[in-house]
Design goal:
The complex is a heterodimer of chains A (about 475) and B (about 250).
Chain A lengths: L1 H10 L3 E6 L2 H15 L4 E7 L2 H9 L5 E5 H8 L7 H8 L4 E4 L8 E6 H7 L15 E3 L1 H5 L4 H8 L6 E2 L2 H9 L5 E5 L4 H4 L2 E4 L11 E6 L2 H4 L1 H8 L7 H12 L5 H10 L14 H5 L4 H32 L1 H16 L2 H12 L4 H25 L3 H10 L3 H31 L12 H10 L2 H29 L6
Parallel strand pairs in A: 1-2, 6-7, 6-8
Antiparallel strand pairs in A: 3-10, 4-10, 5-8, 5-9
Chain B lengths: L1 E10 L2 E9 L6 E5 L6 H8 L7 E6 L2 E2 L5 H6 L1 E5 L10 H11 L4 H14 L16 H13 L5 E5 L7 H18 L2 E6 L2 H7 L2 E6 L2 E6 L1 H6 L4 H9 L4 H4 L2
Parallel strand pairs in B: 3-8, 3-9, 6-7, 7-8
Antiparallel strand pairs in B: 1-2, 1-4, 4-5, 9-10
């Protein structure tokens, strides 16, 4: 039934707004969805993996619009240099997409170092980095690989260093702890002042303009005229200062994205008025989203498990009976196991034409297969030949032997395989948050983006608790399913 | 009933059974006797179709065994192996009644039959709820016998049924089994490596060596007229003497 609810989302025509996995994007996403909600049903699929995933989701209609920056759209998505709105729209039109609603601020990439280090080493521009190859550079993964990121920068300035990738939410603390010397920042980041950073100037003008805009499907104005009109009113309403302030409210004052967006739209300061303590772990753990996330996580784990058992057990039976296929079958499911989960997820999105629950379920199904297939095959193959022959000698036909003798004897092994898959899936399901499928991973992703340990734990702890619960559940199931004579 | 016609069998290039023909005497007990590896168990398993012969044919009631008729034939053959082959996930009663239940036999008939067999095999009915793991070796073999006899088959095949038991239990079961065979008058083929056991059971003893039948006859024939030095040596090695003949 939960499956119907999940797929029902597509049927109901809701405006779906996406956002990327960093504070500013979360906030803009909230502002957009709250604006739209005043006149139409809308949903915010927050914190999706990266620009690539969002773009694919936009193209196949899983989301309708998301906030991005002109420079990013130009260099990363269209692979061109022209970042004015006209050129961008011309480039996006063939895909059924467009850019509109310049929000009113710029958020460019920059490199930053600690002020004290800048003074010590005389660093003022990016060019100065070239003469200090010993400096350790840590940048976000996206920056590391984007064509308008490190590769281009390195070429433009002849930089000798090899940077490492690390999550943007952790970069500031790493810089402060002197684990890295240089990092990429966004010019509207809240933490620049707090950590005493010096922004190195881009004297060769490598970085293009990054004006905040919305990338949207061209059919949105037709499908959601009222909502689109409301959203268009946001043009020019957010200046850089306001954005920095909102970022600070999230990262330094611990306010929720929704509250910040609401306050901005109401033109009032957020509820409490003063900087408050960050929400405690306990309050986050049982926050209002707890049941939704629990439901999503359970759906992801059990739906994929059921499918994997329905397919895996017959596969295992087949492999046990027909020696010739045993090797290829086991090799195939073993191969799937080696694929990195995020890669498999990203691969499934264009194939299935959607983000969210379905690609997550397919991926989790694939990962749950190996333990089940392997354990079924070995459970059956390990049956003593004397027992197998006794069943044959009775004159029981093959299916009856399987049902009455072989499967009960293999039950312990098969159940162990299902249990293993279940526990593994609880963990793997946390990455489903990267593609908007929800579950406890959503909190983990947000916690990472904000570098908020309490939020992180509020996602990790229930996931671990669920794994333990499932383990206990299966212990009970053991007692019920495994024949008494075999315990 | 069962007829083997020039059957042979090799495993991985090694010839385990040379071209052999055999039709166990109806209503009598035939014993396949020989050392390990002589092919006696192979011959037995060919009779019930657990193995397919490389050459020759196996017939039941004149009809060659094939995948189409093998299960039906097996319903008319009882098969007992060393250490019973009882299914550990079922209790003794369920082991015995498994096939009958599957075939949809009438419940009250099944229960009645179990009581009959329990008395025949000297196995207490109230112990039928125990699982094989909770039974002694001797008790397991009694249950295995009950299971084999459930549908009242015409043929009973036993592959070293007493080899895993201690001497006292073995002796006890030998006595009982002979009484049972005499009472039931079925065609019985029993495999053993023990000459004394063969003499005890066998209306006819069939001595085998390296995949061939070397002599058939009563114990007397083996003692007085060994067909070749091997038989003579085999008999001597088991310290058989004239006293055994007087049974």
């Amino acid at each position: 039934m939960l499956l119907l609810v999940a797929s029902g989302v597509a049927a109901q025509d809701k405006l779906v707004i996406g956002s990327k996995r960093f504070t500013e994007s979360y906030i803009l996403g909230e502002i957009l969805v709250q604006t739209a909600r005043t006149v139409a049903p809308a949903e915010h699929k927050q914190g999706m993996g990266n620009t690539g995933i969002l773009f694919t989701a936009l193209k196949n209609g899983s989301i309708d619009l998301y906030p991005d920056y002109t420079g990013t759209v130009a260099r990363e998505l269209l692979k061109t240099d022209a970042s004015d709105l006209g050129s961008l729209n011309r480039g996006l039109a063939p895909l059924g997409l467009g850019v509109a609603v310049p929000l009113g601020f710029e958020d460019t990439y920059a490199l930053a170092v600690l002020d004290t280090e800048a003074n010590r080493l005389g660093l003022r521009t990016i060019r100065d980095l070239a003469s200090h190859p010993e400096l350790r550079i840590g940048v976000s993964h996206e920056f590391l690989n984007r064509s308008d990121g490190w590769p281009g920068l390195k070429r433009a300035y002849g930089l000798p260093q090899t940077p490492r990738g690390l999550d943007h939410g952790l970069a500031y603390e790493a810089l402060a702890a002197r684990q890295i010397d240089v990092t990429d920042i966004y010019s509207t980041d809240a933490k620049i002042e707090k950590y005493g950073l010096r922004v190195l100037s881009d004297d060769r003008h490598f970085f293009p303009e990054y004006s905040a805009v919305l990338v949207y499907r061209l059919d949105v104005p037709r499908r959601f005229p009222a909502a689109w009109s409301a959203i268009q009113n946001l043009a020019g309403r957010i200046d850089a200062q306001a954005m920095v302030r909102m970022n600070a409210q999230a990262e330094l004052e611990g306010k929720s994205f929704a509250a910040i967006a609401a306050a901005f739209l109401a033109r009032t300061p957020p509820q409490e008025g003063q900087p408050t303590k960050r929400a405690t772990f306990a309050s986050l753990l049982f926050g209002p989203d707890f049941w939704r996330l629990t439901g999503q996580h359970l759906l992801l784990v059990f739906a994929s498990l059921a499918a994997a058992a329905a397919v895996g057990i017959p596969l295992g039976i087949w492999a046990a009976r027909t020696r010739a296929v045993a090797q290829p079958v086991l090799a195939a499911v073993g191969l799937i196991q080696t694929l990195p989960s995020l890669a498999l997820l990203a691969f499934l999105i264009p194939v299935l034409g959607t983000i969210g629950v379905w690609p997550a379920l397919v991926a989790l199904f694939a990962y749950a297969l190996l333990p089940i297939v392997r354990n079924t095959e070995s459970g059956l193959s390990d049956i003593a030949p004397a027992l197998r022959e006794s069943a044959q000698a009775l004159g029981l036909p093959a299916m009856a032997r399987l049902r009455l003798v072989e499967l009960p004897l293999a039950a312990r092994s098969i159940l162990a395989g299902i249990k293993t898959s279940a526990v593994i899936n609880v963990g793997t399901a946390t990455i489903a948050a990267f593609i908007g499928a929800g579950g406890y991973g959503e909190r983990i992703v947000t916690g990472l983006a904000l570098n908020d340990n309490a939020m992180l734990l509020a996602g990790a702890v229930p996931a671990a608790a669920l794994a333990l619960l499932i383990h206990a559940l299966f212990e009970g199931l053991d007692r019920a399913v495994i024949p008494r004579g075999l315990r | 009933m069962i007829a083997l016609d020039s059957v042979s069998k090799s495993f991985g290039g090694r010839r385990v059974l040379g071209a052999t023909s055999l039709a166990p005497a109806l209503g009598r007990t035939s014993v396949l006797l020989g050392p390990s590896g002589c092919g006696k168990s192979t011959l037995l398993r060919l009779m019930i179709g657990l193995l397919a012969p490389d050459s020759g044919s196996v017939s039941f009631d004149g009809v060659p065994l094939s995948p189409a008729n093998i299960d039906e034939a097996r319903h008319r053959i009882g098969y007992v192996i060393q250490d019973g082959g009882l299914f550990p996930h079922l209790n003794a009663r369920r082991n015995v009644t498994l096939l009958a239940s599957y075939l949809g036999r009438d419940r009250s008939w099944v229960d009645q039959r179990v009581v009959e067999l329990g008395s025949l095999a000297h196995f207490p009915v109230d112990a039928l709820d125990r699982f094989p793991a909770q039974l002694s070796g001797g008790e397991r073999q009694r249950v295995a016998l009950m299971r084999a006899l459930m549908l009242d088959p015409e043929v009973l095949l036993l592959d070293e049924p007493l080899a895993a038991l201690d001497a006292i239990t073995r002796h006890e079961l030998q006595t009982e089994l002979r009484q049972i065979f005499a009472r039931l008058r079925k065609t019985v083929v029993l495999v053993t490596h023990d000459l004394h056991e063969a003499a005890w059971f066998g209306d006819e003893i069939i001595v085998m060596r390296e995949g061939r039948i070397v002599q058939r006859g009563r114990l007397d024939d083996l003692l007085q007229r060994p067909a070749d030095p091997f038989v003579a040596e085999f008999v001597r090695a088991q310290r058989a003497d004239a006293r055994l003949v007087a049974t």
